C-alpha cells in the first residue's frame, strides 16, 4: 500500500483476467475479531499463502467493525470481498447491515481501495441494482454468492445474472447426489461450472464458498451414501483444484479464481485450513499462478 491514500482507483486493481487459481480464504467474522487479530490473520493469509483477498462470511454487528476490517486489510496489503449477511432467521437485520456497510464504504477513505466486491447471499435482483446505484461513485462491483442449484430452482434467475458484475459460485461438491471422494469430484465441479459459463453471460467467475468438509455434523450431511468427509478428503479437494490451474486460467470470461472455505476451525468446524490450536490442519500450498 502507498503511504497516502490515492485519489483515484485508476490502475489500482489488477485486471480480473489475472485473477485465477487460489484467491484467498473465506473468513468468518461472527467472533467480531479484534483489530490485532484481524491484522495478524490477514497478514498470514497474504504472506504465507499469497492470498490476494479475504472473503468475509457471517456477520459482526459491532459498530465500526468493518472499519477494523479495512484497517487490517490495508495493513496486510490484501483486498476484501465484503458480505451482506442475511443469516438463517428470516429477519430484517440484513437491512441494517447493508446500510451500515454502505455508510462505512462512503466514510472511510481507504474503503474503496480495499473492498474489491460486495456480495449478497440471496438472489435479490432489485437489491443488486440498488447497491450498484448506491456504490456507483466508489466503483465497487456487486455480486450474489450462490450455488448453481439456487439459481436453477428459480428458473435460472436471469434477472440476477443480468444485474451482477461477477459470478460468485458456491462450489460444495460433497453435497452432490453423486458425490464420493474429493479426488473423484471434478465432474461435479465442472457440471456446475458449465452451468455458470452457459448462463453467466461470460462474466468473471469466482468459487466463493468452496471446500470439502472433514467431518459431518447436524448441518453438514451428505446427499450421497458414498460421500466421505475426513481430513484427507478436505486436503484432496484443494489438491484437485490446484492441479487444474491451467484450466482455470483459460475459462472464458477471464478465468476462475477460487477461495478456500474456511480460514480456521475456530470459525467453522470441519472446514478450517487451520486447527483451533493455530496449527495447519491440512497441507496447503496452493498455486496463485501458472
Write the layout of secondary structure elements.
Blueprint: E1 21-28, H1 35-49, E2 53-57, H2 65-76, E3 79-84, H3 93-107, H4 111-114, E4 115-120, H5 125-134, E5 142-147, H6 148-152, H7 158-163, E6 167-171, H8 186-199, E7 205-210, H9 231-243, H10 245-250, E8 256-260
Helix pairs in contact: 1-2
Features:
single chain, 290 residues, alpha/beta, TIM Barrel, eight-stranded parallel barrel, 10 helices, globular
Q: What would you note in describing this structure?
A:
The chain is an alpha/beta fold and 290 residues long. The chain has one domain (16-274): Glycosidases (TIM Barrel, Alpha-Beta Barrel), CATH 3.20.20. It is built from ten helices and eight strands. It has an eight-stranded parallel β-barrel, surrounded by six helices. The chain is globular and about 50 Å long. It starts with 20 loop residues before the first strand and ends in a 30-residue tail after the last strand. InterPro entries: Beta-glucan_modifiers, GH.
Amino acid at each position: 500500500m502507498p503511504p497516502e491514500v490515492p485519489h483515484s482507483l485508476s490502475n489500482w486493481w489488477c485486471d480480473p483476467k489475472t485473477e485465477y487459481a487460489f484467491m484467498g480464504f473465506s473468513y468468518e467474522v461472527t467472533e467480531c475479531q479484534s483489530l490485532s487479530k484481524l491484522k495478524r490473520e490477514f497478514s498470514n493469509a497474504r504472506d504465507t499463502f499469497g492470498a490476494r483477498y479475504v472473503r468475509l462470511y457471517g456477520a459482526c454487528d459491532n459498530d465500526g467493525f468493518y472499519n477494523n476490517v479495512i484497517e487490517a486489510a490495508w495493513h496486510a496489503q490484501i483486498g476484501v470481498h465484503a458480505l451482506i449477511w442475511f443469516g438463517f432467521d428470516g429477519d430484517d437485520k440484513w437491512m441494517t447491515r447493508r446500510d451500515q456497510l454502505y455508510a462505512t464504504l462512503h466514510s472511510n477513505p481507504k474503503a474503496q481501495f480495499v473492498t474489491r466486491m460486495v456480495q449478497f447471499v440471496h438472489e435479490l435482483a432489485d437489491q443488486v441494482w440498488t447497491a450498484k446505484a448506491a456504490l456507483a461513485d466508489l466503483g465497487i462491483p456487486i455480486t450474489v454468492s450462490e450455488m448453481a442449484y439456487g439459481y436453477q430452482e428459480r428458473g435460472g434467475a436471469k434477472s440476477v445474472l443480468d444485474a451482477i458484475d461477477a459470478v460468485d459460485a458456491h462450489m460444495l461438491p460433497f453435497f452432490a447426489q453423486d458425490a464420493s471422494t474429493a479426488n473423484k469430484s471434478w465432474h461435479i465441479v465442472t457440471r456446475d461450472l458449465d452451468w455458470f459459463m452457459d448462463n453467466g453471460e461470460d462474466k468473471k467467475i469466482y468459487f466463493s464458498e468452496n471446500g470439502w468438509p472433514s467431518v459431518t455434523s447436524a448441518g453438514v450431511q451428505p446427499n450421497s451414501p458414498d460421500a466421505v468427509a475426513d481430513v484427507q478428503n478436505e486436503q484432496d479437494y484443494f489438491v484437485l483444484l490446484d492441479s487444474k490451474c491451467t484450466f482455470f486460467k483459460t475459462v472464458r470470461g477471464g478465468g476462475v479464481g477460487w477461495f478456500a472455505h474456511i480460514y480456521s476451525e475456530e470459525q467453522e468446524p470441519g472446514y478450517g485450513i487451520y486447527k483451533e490450536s493455530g496449527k495447519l490442519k491440512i497441507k496447503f500450498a496452493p498455486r496463485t499462478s501458472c
